């Protein structure tokens, strides 16, 4: 093979790339060829210079943005901490939090500031509309759609949220409690019927149960029962794609592509539900679900929300109720199985408050008086908070401290976990101690600012009351109807992160009908 370029013999000074090429060639027993159409070594040199300059620029920008914040001295070229973010782990996050109250990292040139201290976390939560906007994760926009209300910020968000808040008051939510109880009992029956000698992972059944409950509460009978399984399965594809980092192109076969297709199917049914709900309320039907309650309010006012807007709102609610609530419920079952002394107290309280009648659902007033049950749920969510951190994006230079201003475009992440494991507020922070919530003068009750399970500020979880009521009702009812054993493994205390956290072994439980002692 003859070489097709006739440039003078390169030296390291004249062209480093061509020089290396010649060095490489000298090692080979045959002649390598530059086809005539390939750029000459001088062009390669120019490309190398540009690439090198970009790499130097990248490091310079990283150091200029990071300033004195703890973090890598040099960022990994181009990808940053991409590999770590592909496999997020609590251990890696803990390392990052241990770096300091504020620390820096980067993924694909996205500069990220992570707040571990409670003051800074709350400062970020409270900055939306002035310095920041909610970011969720990059894939959230194409999946939930760009015009979904969850991406609103500032005044428009406050107005929209004010309208939705009225459907999440305790009074509004109490009308669904008996329905929730009925659905829970149906699912308990299924879990008991499916129970085998071996404990089974409960992630799948719990997720489906939450979807069935949430669809009933949000959409009533406007989503037929036989569609619930379909939407639940589709939603799993959506959840799996909502990772901190995803493949940037949404081509067939990628998680985000699958999630977009799944959203289209779910939206088809939710759009139909919105139209049916409007027709039901227009015809004078009594509200039987959140969509109906919304229609009733909106027909009495001037602003009419389109079927698409209503369906998108429910889509956003389902995301949260599916994932975070499943995490909260699974850990509540796990913690109670691992602490029989706590379960015994929960049962005693339930039997007392229900007056021995275990066949009927619990009322809101009764639930309110379950002091020990509510402390148990609160403690379970503290110990294993479903959401570890919430990404926000800086929209204007944000002075987080007097010395450090996060530049526009930075991803700022308030972390919830460190505040919820602060030993000064929660002594023995890794122990499950519902009693800490029973002393009104104790540090736990005296430091509500540390209880960041549901976030803080303008975007604080809209569903927190619903989630707390649901988990308490389910666990309370389960405690008097069933026994459950937890098969502990080496992975039970380890955490896997699928948008929210779950026991790494999927939580292996064996349910059986309650044996009264
Ligand atoms: C244990 C269960 C849950 C946990 C731990 C949880 C946690 C959170 C957290 C940490 C945030 C971010 C708050 C912030 O940025 O300050 C959030 C937002 C949100 N959650 Fe939840 N959530 C739960 C259940 C639910 C449920 C059942 C719903 C259903 C309605 C829901 C709907 C939402 C919505 C719509 C937002 C965004 C609110 C806004 O931007 O105004 N969540 N949640």
UniProtKB/TrEMBL annotation:
It holds the Pfam family p450. Heme binds at residue 461. Coiled coil: none annotated. The keyword Transport does not apply. Its EC number is 1.14.19.41. Keywords: Heme, Iron, Metal-binding, Monooxygenase, Oxidoreductase. It comes from the Eukaryota. SUPFAM superfamilies: Cytochrome P450. Its cofactor is heme. One of its GO terms (biological process) is sterol metabolic process. GO terms for molecular function: C-22 sterol desaturase (NADPH) activity; heme binding; iron ion binding; monooxygenase activity. Belongs to the cytochrome P450 family. This is sterol 22-desaturase.
């Amino acid at each position: 093979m003859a070489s097709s370029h006739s440039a003078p013999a390169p030296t390291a000074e004249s062209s480093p790339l061509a020089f290396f090429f010649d060095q490489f060639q000298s090692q080979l027993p045959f002649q390598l060829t530059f086809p005539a159409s390939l750029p000459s070594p001088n062009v390669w040199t120019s490309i190398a210079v540009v690439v090198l300059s970009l790499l130097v620029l990248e490091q310079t920008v990283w150091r200029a943005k990071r300033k004195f914040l703890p973090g890598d001295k040099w960022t990994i070229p181009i990808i940053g901490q991409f590999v770590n973010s592909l496999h997020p782990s609590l251990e890696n996050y803990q390392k990052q939090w241990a770096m300091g109250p504020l620390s820096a990292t980067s993924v694909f040139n996205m500069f990220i500031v992570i707040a571990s201290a409670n003051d800074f976390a709350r400062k970020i939560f409270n900055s939306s509309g002035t310095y920041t906007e909610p970011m969720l994760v990059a894939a959230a926009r194409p999946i939930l759609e760009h015009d979904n209300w969850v991406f609103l910020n500032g005044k428009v968000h406050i107005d929209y949220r004010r309208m939705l808040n009225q459907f999440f008051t305790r009074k509004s939510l109490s009308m669904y409690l008996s329905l929730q109880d009925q659905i829970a009992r149906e699912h308990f029956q299924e879990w008991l019927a499916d129970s085998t000698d071996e404990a089974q992972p409960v992630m799948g059944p719990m997720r489906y149960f939450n979807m069935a409950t949430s669809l009933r509460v949000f959409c009533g009978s406007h989503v037929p029962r036989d569609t619930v399984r379909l939407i639940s399965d589709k939603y799993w594809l959506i959840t799996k794609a909502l990772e901190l980092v995803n493949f940037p192109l949404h081509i067939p076969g990628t998680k985000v592509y699958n999630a977009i297709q799944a959203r289209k199917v779910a939206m088809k049914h939710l759009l139909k539900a919105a139209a049916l709900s409007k027709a039901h309320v227009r015809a004078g039907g009594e509200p039987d679900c959140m969509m109906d309650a919304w229609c009733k309010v909106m027909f009495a006012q001037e602003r009419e929300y389109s079927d698409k807007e209503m369906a998108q709102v429910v889509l956003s609610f389902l995301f949260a109720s599916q994932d975070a609530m499943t995490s909260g419920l699974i850990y509540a079952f796990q913690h109670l199985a691992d602490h029989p002394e706590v379960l015994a107290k929960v049962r005693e309280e339930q039997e007392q408050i229900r007056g021995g009648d275990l066949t009927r659902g619990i009322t809101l007033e009764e639930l309110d008086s379950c002091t020990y049950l509510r402390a148990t749920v609160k403690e379970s969510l503290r110990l294993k908070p479903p959401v570890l951190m919430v990404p926000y994006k800086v929209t204007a230079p944000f002075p987080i401290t007097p010395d450090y201003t996060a530049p526009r475009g930075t991803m700022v992440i308030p972390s919830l976990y460190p505040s919820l494991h602060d030993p000064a507020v929660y002594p023995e922070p890794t122990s499950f101690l519902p009693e800490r919530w029973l002393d009104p003068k104790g540090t736990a009750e005296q430091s509500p600012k540390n209880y960041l399970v549901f976030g803080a500020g303008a975007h604080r979880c809209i569903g927190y009351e619903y989630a707390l009521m649901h988990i308490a009702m389910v666990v309370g009812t389960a405690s008097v109807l069933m026994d459950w054993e937890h098969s502990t493994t080496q992975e039970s205390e380890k955490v896997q992160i699928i948008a929210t956290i779950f026991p790494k072994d999927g939580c292996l439980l064996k349910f059986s009908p309650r044996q009264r002692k």
